[in-house]
Amino acid sequence: MTYCLGMRTDEGLVGIADTLITSGNELTRSKKLTCITHGTGSLFVLTSGLRSVSDKTITYFTEHLTRLNEPCDRMFKVVNIFSQMIRQVAAEDKPFLRESGLLFNTHCLIGGQLEADATHALYLVYPEGNWVEVSEETPYQIIGAPGYGKPILDRTFSSSDSLAFAVKVGCLSFDSTRISAADVDFPMDVVLYRKNSFQMIQHRFFQEDLRDISIWWDDVLRKGIKELPDEWIDGLLTKLNCKCGQ
Q1: Which is nearest to 120 in space by CA: 72, 75, 81?
Q2: 148-153 contacts: CB < 8 A, separation 24 or more?
Q3: pLDDT, tens digit, for every residue of 170-187?
Q4: Which range marks the domain in which residue 190 is found?
Q5: CA end-to-end span of the chain
Q6: What is the pLDDT of residues 70-105, one digit of tens each?
Q7: Residue 71 to residue 83: CA distance in whole angstroms
Q8: Total domains, the chain
Q9: CATH number of the domain that residue 82 is part of
Q10: Fewer beta carbons under 10 A from the terminal one: N or C of the chain?
């Protein structure tokens, strides 16, 4: 499984990805984040799904970009090229994967800003090669294991939040997933893009880097539950006891 999170704010973009590929008897880790400079702009790609499909698509994609006579000037054009590469890999590999009982599965998040883009953009690309743009109304997307880290984002995150806030809540979302999903783990790669900067900033964090934050988050959650009004819970327990006694 994978946890990749893309977040869009008015100030820019945040991408977060775990690095665990396989778990159990054998642990394998590898990057699921790729940053690319293209023309005067830049973009990042987060990948989830069958590793061989993702790696082959990224290889075809980066090679195709280097062979263009002119760099793309809009993000949607780059995303269309990426979609073409997914379909090419599907045509080549899907029949053989099917014979082995494997699904052709890759989901990708692509974010960035190119020369003619008025602002930054974030896209979710499906295995079929079709895509949707992440909007202000739903300013984030998770690929991989969405269930555990989604609640905190739904409750707290909006497109008007600062990049700093997005990084904070994104890290807590990752930590919530890591705690509950055995196949999501550190190291965690983070990429930050500030609007109109045309540069990606990326850094890898290890478990010890965020240990204090994880402990703090546990304590805050426990304290918050303990501080729930007694009148509310007493009333609830009274109703439950009445039903149990019927």
Answers
A1: 75
A2: 148/176, 148/177, 148/179, 148/180, 148/181, 149/3, 149/5, 149/173, 149/174, 149/176, 149/177, 151/176, 152/176, 153/5
A3: 999 999 999 999 889 999
A4: 3-209
A5: 46
A6: 999 999 999 999 999 999 999 999 999 999 999 999
A7: 17
A8: 1
A9: 3.60.20.10
A10: C
